[in-house]
Write a structure and sequence with these properties.
Length: about 950
């Protein structure tokens, strides 16, 4: 080999030589790589930092090499590498897609295709080691073995074509046996400690090689592909995760309903903590993209911001929420959109609008009519492509004075009226049965409005639960064709793969969308089909009758249980240790058994709250709501109580929860009410809050094993921003050397270091926690969904939400796959002698039953349940006693949960800009 201008030789006396290369003297890709790799048999490469550009090493030069092995490092801690594979894979995938891989793949599509073939064929292998093993951002080397032996090299070259061809780089080649052996030993040690490249990255390389953007109009005639095309590149997938199998299954079910019935009527009844929000949101996204029309989502006021945040952060869906007080829409960044008044509630500036159910409840009169000038009136004037109701169990009827007739409440009245005005109606609740099966039928009746394929017409047996429940529960069997015929044909199910239904429709000349018939079996004129019908309707299969296997509930109610998902390995069954407990109470200087001692300021504030509610009751208005609201915020923190009292005085703005209950544009406190509210502020202002001392105790003094909770990482939760903000600041002031993250709503998240706050985006906090840069997070419930904190091992609830579903969401932040601990710890802080203490004492007994107890708790605890502690005991006991459910749900909805996620590898996608443009289209003024 002749020496070029780019290299210099130094022979070794023991054999071999040192060759120095400089890109100043010539292109290294020509003078070194091409020459050495030509005809090579193996290539072992110690690369640098792991990112998508590492694949530029794999060019045309190595396609003929028998085996190529590359080891790289990444910003992974040792705990990340030893964590569950799915967590480690997610971290690496996130780093891979952090570069603009879409643009790079568009430019170098052929290279991605070749690389994918090489990775699939096994000729190229890549492993990754954490930075704690080898932070070798500049320690790059390799061994190339050819027919004439091996050579080693090392130098400054980066893993890009530009580095080899254009950058100023230095490479030293050592062909001596000692030099080759030394580099090979380094490589072999790192290779042994490395972890394989995740399959998800290999799949992503292949996806990018075939990726092409499709116009939305291409899906109008064949809508099956729209969901993966719209979701494949959303944040949840770019974050190394995905929609869960049951969430994808619901979207697919929605699409089937849309195709089969022309409209969807579904009740999502997944148990608490399973993640219904994304199932509904993804369905709404598909509906909008297919041009079905505007989407109205009704949720409790306390969840409005949480929905808006989750849809944006997880699915990149910009949506607007209606501000109850200001009577205007709020955009995804938390900014007010100029409004012309309450009538603008029917003109949302985005395709999807979020509105509080409280406004709807207050907007209906006792006769079922919308009150003039309310949101309910304006919404009932227009039509929708989809209406979604969260916590739908609040829409129900009641029997009065021994009457069998159900009288609907205001929310159910609204639902019954808006159902005919929407193409799709999706309801969501973990507890569709609150007191009796009639509650479930109230919801089914709303789905049946203008959609007789749900329960049939007024003559249908399915409209009367007392008649059909014995068949559903297996307590009664169909004895003959005549009895079964009424159940089968009103409503008549879609044909699907059922031969009997196909024969019945054919012989009676019914269309595929004829859902009710008044024809008789004899009208079929085919004795063979009649005999077949009688055999099918009266026979049992697997111990179940025909209408246990197929009925309106199974067709329109989707139910997946936590224990089934755990059994399938889809949800981790991770035990939760609760603190304090009766067996292990808190330290006596802080705790009175399970609850904290109160301060003198708290006791005085409690007296002032009681005095205020007595004064407020003189207005002839129910004072129970106002009392519970003030008590909950006082029991959360002194900061939250002060902020609420000031808002009621008029010094600060009232929040939506208060405003909706008052049904007024402003709250004008009277003199005696204002005096008691000022007393709340005065006795609390500047005083120490025992909650802070308790949090610090659990962080530093209470230990689980040899480590403190601060060392294991902790998330501190509150349902109120004022509490979370105060707690984050106080914790930072106490430990100025530690970074404290405040994870909250739009524009309110920040990092606090040494008392200095810096505003950040929520995604930045998520990344820093995932990379173990942050070990202490204070968060609000509004922002908790989508926050994956398996790198933290403990949780402290500063306040106790009277909502088991929200408590489960909090625990779900750390109770995730990849949690390094075998058990996780949760501390609940309540004050002695308060309503919160009573609720917690009852709830904690239910919590201790098992880690899966939430699946059998109500979704919410109603305020009237806690007026008498015995009532609360009775209510919760009714839920925690195992209910007999129709096990056909498990058979129907478990089978499709183990299929691979084909959406993650969708190569035909809708451009994000197109999706955002459609979602940013306002509701038309046309009703």
């Amino acid at each position: 080999m002749e020496q070029s201008d780019a290299q210099a030789f130094s022979p070794f006396t023991g054999g071999g030589r040192l060759v120095r290369f400089s890109s100043r003297q010539g292109r290294l890709s020509s003078v070194f790589l091409a020459d050495r790799l030509k005809g090579a048999l193996t290539y072992d490469r110690i690369a640098g930092y792991f990112r998508s550009s590492i694949f530029e090493l794999v060019g045309e030069e190595i396609e003929t090499i028998g085996k190529v092995r590359i080891v790289a490092n990444a910003d992974l801690e040792a705990e990340d590498v030893e964590a569950a594979q799915r967590v480690r894979d997610a971290l690496l995938f996130r780093k891979f897609v952090a570069d603009d891989t879409v643009v790079d793949a568009a430019i170098h599509r052929d290279r991605y295709a070749r690389l994918h073939d090489l990775l699939l064929g096994g000729r190229v292998e890549i492993r990754v080691v954490p930075r704690t093993v080898a932070p070798f951002l500049h320690g790059k080397a390799g061994v190339i073995t050819g027919p004439n032996g091996a050579v080693s090299f090392m130098g400054s070259i980066n893993e890009t074509r530009a580095a080899w061809a254009h950058n100023y780089e230095l490479v030293w080649e050592d062909t001596s046996p000692e030099g080759v052996a030394w580099v090979q030993a380094e490589f072999d040690d790192l290779w042994a400690q490395g972890k394989p490249l995740p399959d998800a990255i290999v799949q992503e390389v292949g996806r990018l090689a075939k990726r092409r953007e499709i116009e939305i109009v291409a899906f109008r005639d064949d809508p099956k592909g729209v969901a993966p095309a719209a979701l494949a590149e959303t944040p949840i997938y770019r974050d190394g995760q995905s929609l869960q199998p049951w969430q994808r299954a619901f979207v697919i079910q929605f699409m089937r309903h849309r195709e089969t019935y022309g409209r969807a009527r579904m009740l999502l009844a997944d148990e608490v903590g399973v993640g219904k929000t994304l199932s509904l949101a993804a369905s709404a996204l598909v509906s909008v993209l297919l041009g079905d029309g505007p989407v109205l989502i009704l949720v409790p006021s306390t969840l409005l911001e949480q929905w808006q945040i989750e849809l944006l952060d997880r699915l990149a869906m910009p949506v607007a929420r209606w501000h109850s007080t200001r009577k205007c829409w709020i955009d995804p960044a938390g900014r007010m959109i100029k409004s012309g008044g309450i009538q603008d509630v029917a003109r949302c500036p985005y395709a999807i609008g979020l509105i509080s159910t409280g406004l709807i409840i207050h907007g209906m009169d006792p006769h079922g009519e919308p009150k003039k000038g309310t949101e309910a009136e304006h919404l009932l004037r227009r039509r929708f492509g989809m209406v979604v109701l969260d916590e739908a169990h609040k829409a129900r009827g009641s029997e009065y004075n021994g009457s069998d007739e159900r009288t609907p409440n205001n929310l159910l009245r609204f639902l019954l009226r808006i159902a005919p005005r929407t193409k799709h109606l999706l309801l969501s609740t973990a507890t569709p049965i609150q007191t009796s099966e009639n509650d479930l039928w109230d919801l089914l009746q709303s789905l049946n409005q203008d959609a007789e394929f749900v329960l049939g017409n007024a003559f249908s047996q399915w409209q009367r639960p007392e008649r059909v429940l014995p068949f559903l529960k297996g307590e009664r069997k169909v004895v003959d064709l005549r009895e079964g015929w009424q159940l089968l044909t009103n409503p008549l199910p879609p044909t699907g793969s059922d031969d009997l239904l196909a024969d019945v429709r054919a012989t009676l000349e019914l269309g595929e969308r004829d859902w009710v018939t008044n024809r008789y079996p004899s009208d079929m004129g085919n004795h063979v089909v009649q005999m077949k019908a009688e055999m099918e309707l009266t026979a049992e299969r697997g111990g179940q009758g025909y209408f246990q296997r197929d009925n309106p509930l199974l067709r329109h109610v989707v139910l997946r249980k936590r224990r089934d998902l755990e059994r399938l390995g889809l949800i981790p069954s991770l035990p939760v240790d609760i603190h304090p407990t009766v067996e292990l109470p808190g330290p006596s200087h802080l705790f009175d058994g399970l609850s904290l001692y109160t301060s003198s300021g708290f006791d005085a504030a409690l007296e002032a709250v009681n005095a205020f509610t007595k004064a407020y009751a003189k207005r002839d208005k129910p004072a129970g709501f106002m009392k519970n609201l003030l008590l909950q915020r006082l029991c959360s923190s002194q900061a939250a109580a002060i902020a609420t009292a000031k808002a009621l005085i008029g010094d600060e703005e009232l929040d939506d929860e208060i405003q909706e209950e008052l049904e007024e544009k402003a709250f004008d406190a009277r003199a005696d009410e204002r005096r008691h509210l000022r007393a709340v502020v005065e006795v609390l202002q500047g005083g120490p809050d025992p909650k802070l001392r308790a949090v610090q105790y659990f962080l530093d003094e209470h230990r689980t094993g040899p480590r403190s909770w601060r060392e294991m990482g902790c998330i501190v939760f509150s349902q109120y921003y004022e509490t979370a903000s105060w707690m984050a600041g106080a914790l930072s002031a106490a430990r100025p050397d530690q970074v404290v993250a405040l994870y909250a709503g739009a524009g309110r998240s920040r990092l606090i270091i040494g008392g200095v706050a810096t505003n950040v985006e929520r995604n930045q906090i998520k990344r820093l926690v995932a990379e173990r840069e942050i070990h202490l997070v204070v968060a609000t419930d509004a922002a908790c969904e989508g926050l994956n904190l398996q790198t933290l091992g403990t949780l402290i609830n500063v306040d106790l939400p009277w909502n088991p579903a929200r408590l489960e969401q909090r625990i779900g932040r750390i109770k995730r796959f990849g949690q390094a601990r075998d058990r996780v710890d949760m501390a609940n802080l309540t004050y002695a002698g308060t309503v919160d203490e009573k609720v917690y004492r009852v709830l904690s007994e239910r919590l201790k039953l098992s880690s899966d107890v939430f699946g059998s708790l109500p979704e919410t605890i109603e305020a009237d349940w806690i007026e008498d502690i015995e009532t609360l005991e009775e209510r919760l006991r009714a839920f925690t006693v195992p209910r007999r459910r129709f096990n056909a749900f498990e058979l129907k909805y478990s089978a499709d949960l183990l299929s691979p996620d084909a959406w993650a590898t969708a190569s035909e996608v809708i451009a994000r800009s197109d999706v955002e443009a459609i979602l940013s289209t306002a509701w038309t003024t046309r009703a």
